[in-house]
Amino acid sequence: APRAAAPPADVARGPESTFRPSSPTVVFSLVVESMDYARLLAHGNILATFRATVKQTVASVVGMGLAPEDIELLLSPGSVNVECRIAVASGEEASLVQEQLLESSRLRGDLDLELKVLARIAAMEGISTGRVAVGSISLPVVLGTTTAAPTLFPPTSTTVTTTTRTPRPPPPCGGMNAICVMNS
Question: Which of 3, 18, 75, 95 has most Cβ atoms within 10 angstroms of its Cβ?
Answer without folding.
Answer: 75
